[in-house]
Amino acid sequence: MTEINRRLVLAAAGAALVPFGARAHSFGPTLAAPLSTRPQRILVVGGTHYLGPALVRAAVARGHTVTLFNRGKTRPHLFKSIERRIGNRYPEHDNGLSSLDTGEWDVVIDLNAYYPRLVTASCEKLKGRTQRYILMSSISVYDSFSRPGLTETSPVRALKGAFTEKPDLVEDEFGSYGARKAMCEDVVCQHFPSNHTIVRASGIIGAGIEDDDPSKFYWLARLMRDTVIAAPGDGSDPLQVIDVNDVAEFLLHLSETGQSGTFNAVGPDRGLTTRDYVETARAVCGGQARVVWTGQVIPNTPMWAPATIVPGFARISYAKGVAAGLRFRPLRQSIESNFDWFRLNHPLDFDFAKAGTGPSPEDEAKALNAV
Q1: How far apart are CA 32 and CA 141, in angstroms?
Q2: How far, in whole angstroms, is CA 133 from its chain's centroid?
């Protein structure tokens, strides 16, 4: 993005916005409370994508010593001062896990576990040289979202067909994604029966260099630039999202306090609806577009899950996580950081259809015509 485009995007935001430099940004260094326990040696599997940078920044800010294990291909410019073990989760590719032949860590935090065979290889390599294995998982493991109130003991998906391992560990083949995640959890539990921690996150928002998912700035951009927007349902569908920094700090808190077991990292700690999200986004960006709640199902709409189809998807229990130390920052703060990220990196006329996010113009027009 050129400097001219950056200035145009910032100018288009309008005078009513909070000045860009006037607030702390979640994609900058995480400000954490002083560590009350001894510093830990943490091995992060991944660390430069999505949740990874937020976790690494928070760990360093809290006084921990971090080692990264990854291929060195995704954003290699990040964290130059942190020890990095270059390798590959596929034991048969490149040098595999050989860079982890030596070293001991208090905890391993595995952020990109998608295939059980690869998690098995990591666990076998590191067993006996770490006191705890923390696995980043997903609410996608749950077998059914037909009822509200899913807890950590609710049934998980079973694999119903074959899948193909992808070299770049992409989160594709969603039909098997949840079952594969559940299988990865089982692997960790088997290898670390008394010292494993599983964290299942809902939709992660907030912004950072690690996350350029356009669904997180879809409503902000459209509220600013469009006149009328077709919205699905009546706005009352529940929504659960959590800030990337809240997940990162929860992972570290569980590590520091030595808590084992499985925890849902879902939020916020109050009832949230799609309308709440949209109106908070409006307050952040100052957009004047008219939102028409059409009562229709509009496919591919970000930040929406129809309660009539998946009534339990956005009503998952966070009670155990909160009891263990999970905390939530205000929704507005998360949306502000997404907005700041959008303004810095994208033009106001960002093409969501081309990026595969948001309903097609035809679907939106059909929903509006049905009102």
Answers
A1: 30
A2: 19
Among 97, 103, 126, residue whose Cα is nearest residue 188: 126
Whether residue 77 is predicted with pLDDT greater than 80 in this model: the reply is yes
What is the rounded (10 degree) CA torsion for 140, 146, 147, 152? -20
* CB-based contact 255:107 (threshold 8 Å): yes
Residue in 216, 208, 210, 218 with CA at minimum distance from that of residue 351: 218
Percentage of residues of the chain with pLDDT beyond 90: 78
Give residue 3's pLDDT. 28
Of 52-61, 145-154, 208-217, the least confident: 208-217
* Domain spanning 3-369, CATH architecture: 3-Layer(aba) Sandwich (3.40)
Each domain of the chain, given as residue ranges in start order, spans: 3-369
DSSP summary character for residue 205: E
What's the half-sphere exposure (Cβ side, CA atoms, 13 Å) at 88? 11
Q: What CA–CA distance (Å, rounded) separates 244 from 211?
A: 9
Distance CA 262, CA 365 (A): 43
Q: What share of residues in the chain are helix, strand, coil (percent, to 5)?
A: 35, 15, 50
Tell me what pLDDT residue 7 has. 26
Report the distance separating Cα 152 and Cα 321, nearest Å.
10
What CA–CA distance (Å, rounded) separates 37 from 305? Answer: 40
Rounded to the nearest 5°, which phi and psi values hold at 142?
Answer: -70, 140
What is residue 230's three-state secondary structure? strand
Helix/strand/coil for 313: coil
What is the enclosing helix (H) or strand (E) of 198?
A: strand 196-201
Four-residue CA torsion sign, 2, 4, 8, 11: positive
- Say how far apart CA 302 and CA 298 lie, in whole Å: 10
C-alpha R_g of the chain: 21
Structural contact between residues 119 and 136, judged by C-beta atoms closer than 8 angstroms: no
- First-to-final CA distance of the chain: 39
Please spell the DSSP secondary structure of 317-369, one letter per residue. Answer: --HHHHHHT-----HHHHHHHHHHHHHHHS-TT--HHHHT-S--HHHHHHHHH
